[in-house]
Amino acid sequence: MNWTFLINQSLAQMLDFAAPILFAALGGVISENAGVVNIALEGIMRFAAFFGVWGAFVSRNPWVGLLWGIGIGALLGAFHAYITVKWAGDQIVSGVAINVVAAGGIRYFLEWIFKTTGYSPTVPYFGDPKHLVNLKFLEGIPILGAFAHLHIFIWLSLILVFVLHFLLYHTVLGLRIRSVGEYPLAAETLGVNVMRIKWFAVILGSIIAALGGVALSLGTMSSFVETGMAAGKGFIGLAAMIFGKWTPIGAMWATFLFASAQVLQFLLQAIAKGIAAKIPVGFYLALPYILTIGALIGVVGKAIGPAADGVPYKKES
Fold first, then answer.
1. Structural element, H or E, at residue 17
2. Is pLDDT at 316 greater than 70 in this prediction?
């Protein structure tokens, strides 16, 4: 058995599975550091996945699809901010509403636009070999060989981790975002425009989550499939954010842990022998979600988020 090939392929698969979850986790990190809970990440990903495919279908260009996905992410983020920031509405209710509309609305859009039920036609996508970021000199090198042929979303998710870390912990804007999430009244007293910062963080977080949706439909796949798209990855992203203690780098490591479970289920199904072969397939499919729940149980009471996270703020008169 070629162990170098197996290791590199497994790592490449893990990175592919991790990218959408990591985008969702980073979207949650930036939003919740500003004090706004966004559990609509799952719905935003579904909308972005669909609009990304729609844009690529109309233009026959995946880059246009990417822009459509970003656009719908920004619109949904603005809607969530309008309800939760401007009117101090319940953040959970607003997020659930977006998720519910995404669950039912996409089915209508599929039938209306593509005249199909459950799936869209195939479109040009970033997983096509001609769109991959090819680093052939890494082929055959243990571990590094996993990075030889990856689509752009994987690289973008990894780069974004360190960009957001720098933004949050090494810039004035990042200090203002974190101060708004910890103690908005004190931040306002010091001249920080709390409402503007919250609007910015929610919309930016939604755009980042939308990238995760487009990564699913135009990175890993080349179409939108209603039953399999997102599939709880937005919620796993939220779990990764909590497990990573609301930091970009912590969320990245948590995401890799959850994505490894996804790869592990494939390996176990492929090499299962004896007693392992008698275990129902559903157990292997549930492994990533079991690990997510287990990780959350392990951090309950230990992971403490921003002090004002989820608390509606009304500007002092």
1. helix 3-32
2. no
pTM of the model: 0.93
Sign of CA dihedral 32, 37, 38, 39: positive
CB neighbours of 35 closer than 8 A, spacing ≥ 6? Answer: 180, 181, 182, 184, 198, 306, 308, 309, 310, 311, 313
In sequence order, what DSSP letters do the residues of 190-242 get, joined into one string? TT--HHHHHHHHHHHHHHHHHHHHHHIIIII-SS-BTTTSSTTHHHHHHHHHH
Map tokens 């001609």 to a residue: 130
Which residue, 22, 3, 18, 6, is CA-closest to 208?
22
**In this predicted model, what pLDDT tens digit does every residue of 44-82 receive, in sequence order?**
999 999 999 999 999 999 999 999 999 999 999 999 999
pLDDT at 206: 98
Cα-atom radius of gyration of the chain, to the nearest Å?
20
Which residues contact residue 215 at a Cβ distance below 8 angstroms, ignoring those fewer than 6 apart?
19, 20, 23, 151, 153, 157
Q: Are 41 and 27 in contact (CB under 8 A)?
A: yes
Helix count (H) and strand count (E) of the chain? 12, 2
**C-alpha–C-alpha distance, residues 11 and 296, integer Å:** 24
- Strand partners for 149: 134
For the chain, list the domains and their CATH numbers. Answer: 13-134+147-299 (1.10.3470)
**Which residue, chain included where needed, has tokens 């954010």?**
241
First to last CA, the chain: 70
